Structures are given as C-alpha cells and as structure tokens.
Amino acid sequence: MKRILVTGALGQIGSELVLKLRGIYGQNNVIASSKGNDKDGSKDVIDSGPFEIVDVLDSKQMADVVSKYSVDTIIHLAAILSAIGEGNPHLLWDVNMNGLYNVLEIARERKCAVFTPSSIAAFGPSTPKDLTPQETIQRPTTIYGVSKVAGELLCDYYYQRFGVDTRGLRFPGLISYKALPGGGTTDYAVHIYYDALKSKKFICNIKKGTKMDMMYMPDALEAIINLMETEPSRLIHRNAFNITAMSFDPEEIYKEIKKHIPEFKIVYDVDLVKQKIAESWPNSLDDKDARREWGWNPKYDLSAMTIDMLEKLKEKLNIK
Ligand code: AKB
Questions:
Q1: CA gyration radius for the chain?
Q2: Which of 75, 238, 304, 310 sits in a 20 to 30 Å window from 63, CA-based?
C-alpha cells in the first residue's frame, strides 16, 4: 500500500483508520473520501490530509479521484449496516452492491488492491452457532447479510477472473469511542459505555443471553493493515476471514462496566427487529485460519477494552 483511498472515511472505522494510515504511510498518501463532510468528529480527518467528496454510486467521480492521486489501494468502507438495512432493503442493495461493484471495476481498470469488510452477518440461523467455522453454511436472513455473502463471492470472482488483489475480513461488532456506529445490531455494545458514564442507566434493546462476537477498534485497525500487508501467497481465504476478539451477551458487558461504576443499572426494552437479526448470527466465530494465514492476534478482551473505553470516553465527554 502506497497511495490509499478510503471510502466512507468519516464513519466508525474510517474516522480512526485514516488517521492511523496517515501516521504510517504519510499524510498525503491517504485520501479520505465520503459522500458528505458534515459528520460529527470528522474535522481531524478532513484537516489532516487530502479529503474528497465521493459518492460510491458515482463511478466517474470515484475513478477521477483514483487517477488524480495515483491510488494503488482502495479501502472500501462505505456501506449501510444491518438494522438500517432492514428498514430500507432497496437502498442497502444499491449502496452495498453497486458501490462495491464500482470499486471493483475501477480496481480492475487501474490495477488497485481492494479491502472490503464482510461481517458476522454473512452467517444465518442454519449456520453452526458456536465456534462457527471459516467455511460453513451461509444462508443469512437479512439484506445486509445477503449483500455481505454476495460481496465475498464478488471479490473472490474479481481475484480469480481478473487478478484484482481483493482481501476482506468478517468483522464482528466493533466497539470504539471516536465516532458512533451507524445503525447496526451490535451498536448497543457502544451505547452502553456512553450511558454508563452519562446517566448510569442503560436501556438495552438486545435480550439478556444473546451472545455476539465483538472487537475493540484498535484490534480491527491492526487487522486491516496486517491483512493488506501480508505476502499474497500466504492467503487462502482472501475475502472472508473469520476474526473475533471476544464474545459476550448484554449481561456480561454490563457486569464488566459495573465493576468500575457500581451504581450502573441496566433495563431491557427489546427491539424485535434487532433481536431477530442478533439471534440469526453466530455466538462465537472460529478464527484460526486468520491466525495461521496472516498472524491475527487481538490484544483486547472485554476487561481490557472496558478499562480503555471508560478512560477515553470520560476524556471525550469531559466527565470527572
Ligand atoms: C452490524 O451490527 O450491522 C455490524 C456488523 C456486525 O456487521 N456491526
């Protein structure tokens, strides 16, 4: 990776990834792009290096930016998440599939490498739930999951048919303090930290006992960079590596936060759409292929993440 274009650069992952990439590859070698420039917390991304307005559905606009900066790698993060997608499946299909198709076509023409996130959503109710294998049944029941499976296959196809260097990871729920997640099912695991600090009470929209895989953002950023820097001959599962760092249900994260904020309370008001999605996903993934093929090794478990999240959020929210 020498000249990197990041789409969706003001989102939950992008707003942290761009700054990290600029620190490693040089400020002017990482081009942040987004459909708009008015998201909270986006100032440091926009001010610290090149920023371009790019709608991933406008292939000419994207191709112009790729040639203007001689981009060799596209990290394609612009996408709609699971819960929002169930509210507007047509929009999700358009953005997630046509956006990816445009990225792959530009990558084919201009010989770029491509990173695309997949998700635990690529699995469904008939997938083995515990230690879900790398290769197993994938029959998702959400439009987001359908787009993720199709995306994994499309990226494999572009590698096999056209030699595009496509790579990807099946991310679990990502927890971070900089930008809020944008409408996923796992978002509760971010909001719980904000509410623990702000009001000491959290209304949880996912049922007790519903386990999902999760990861702290610093590990997710390392994963993207390590995967993209791996010698290609080592990669067997290019576009769909299972990765996880922890698996918990709402009670477990609540109890972990309560160790630091004893007066913290949780109540449940389950969102039926999100609950159905959560129940269709695995409890925990088996990520041994990622560990073997490119050295995946997360640093944060639930306890280490909670200490760091509370410390960083207190600073951000100016809470003593
Ligand atoms: C979501 O909940 O939709 C995402 C994901 C697991 O892909 N965080």
A1: 19
A2: 238
Sign of the alpha-carbon torsion through 45, 79, 134, 132: positive
For atom 4 of ligand 1, the residue with the nearest CA is 184
Query: Cβ < 6 Å from ligand 1: which residues?
Result: 81-82, 119-121, 144, 171-173, 184-186
Closest C-alpha to ligand 1, atom 8: 173
Shortest-distance atom of ligand 1 to CA 212? 6
State whether 255 and 140 are in the same domain.
no
- CA 39–ligand 1 middle distance (angstroms): 20
- Atom number in ligand 1 closest to CA 85: 3
Residue for token pair 């009470």: 201
Specify the pairing of strand 212-216 against strand 246-248: antiparallel
Neighbour count for residue 63 (Cβ, 10 Å): 17
Atom of ligand 1 lying closest to residue 183 CA: 3
The pTM (predicted TM-score) of the whole model is 0.97
C-alpha of residue 130 to centroid of ligand 1, in Å: 18
CA distance 73 to 67: 12
CA-based nearest residue to 257, from 171, 199, 183, 181: 199
Residue to mutate (ligand 1; options 144, 149, 213, 247; most atoms within 8 A of CB): 144
**One domain, residues 82 and 192:** no
Q: How far is residue 119 CA from its own chain's centroid? A: 7
Distance from residue 99's CA to the centre of ligand 1 (Å): 18
How confident is the prediction along the chain (320 residues), in pLDDT tens digits per residue? Answer: 899 999 999 999 999 999 999 999 999 999 999 998 776 668 999 999 999 999 999 999 999 999 999 999 999 999 999 999 999 999 999 999 999 999 999 999 999 999 999 999 999 999 999 999 999 999 999 999 999 999 999 999 999 999 999 999 999 999 999 999 989 999 999 999 999 999 999 999 999 999 999 999 999 999 999 999 999 999 999 999 999 999 999 999 999 999 999 999 999 999 999 999 999 999 999 999 999 999 999 999 999 999 999 999 999 999 98
Question: What are the residue numbers of the active site?
Answer: 144
Tell me, in angstroms, the distance from the centre of ligand 1 to residue 102's CA. 22
**What CATH number does residue 47 fall under?**
3.40.50.720
